[in-house]
Amino acid sequence: MPRVSQDHLDARRRQILDGSRSCFARFGYEGATVRRLEEATGLSRGAIFHHFKDKESLFLALAEDDATRMADVVAEQGLVQVMRNLLDESTGVEEPALGADWLGTRLEVSRRLRTDHEFRQRWAQRSELLTAATRARLQWQRDSGNLRDDVDIDVLTAYLELVLEGLVSHLAMGLPADHLASVLVLVEESVRRHRGR
């Protein structure tokens, strides 16, 4: 019997993550039943859970995958760009760097962080990736002379992460997004070094 190639296993895992992303985004964690996950991925429960121990492991892998993709955007363009991508997605302009339904996954992560202590502990280990990428990008910007130097990098990192969480909450509540692109310009300007300083 021929062995399944690693490329095939990786492609199957990607198929499961991509299909389940839309399922979790549409129905939430509790509503993403095994039957719905089967429909969204086009695979049987056996195939899904061959790759992931259980639904929580699948959701954590999905959230971690999104966090890794976000960290890649942060490394190249900064955390404000991640927020722009989120905003574009919420208003119907899909950003390929994050993919469809990322906002839904992020909203579900935020909800579970608030209500599920065990999930919060497991997620804490994974969320450091984004914080580290943001800190590294800010340090690079400072070293390049583009970032204000009167505020500690850790404070700027926390500031941008709070803005991100505020944006996610705003979009989750369905509030108008009309002026949020201008708000993100203001946020970006607030951390930029102005030559007169």
UniProtKB/TrEMBL annotation:
SUPFAM superfamilies assigned: Homeodomain-like, Tetracyclin repressor-like, C-terminal domain
Domain HTH tetR-type: 10-70
PROSITE patterns linked: HTH_TETR_1 (PS01081), HTH_TETR_2 (PS50977)
Pfam families: TetR_N
Cross-referenced InterPro entries: DNA-bd_HTH_TetR-type_CS (IPR023772), Homeodomain-like_sf (IPR009057), HTH_TetR (IPR001647), Tet_transcr_reg_TetR-rel_C_sf (IPR036271)
Source species, domain of life: Bacteria
Keywords noted in UniProt: DNA-binding, Transcription, Transcription regulation
Entry annotated with the keyword Transcription regulation: yes
Annotation: DNA-binding region: 33-52
Name of protein: TetR/AcrR family transcriptional regulator
Natural source organism: Saccharopolyspora halophila
Taxonomic lineage of the native organism: Bacteria, Bacillati, Actinomycetota, Actinomycetes, Pseudonocardiales
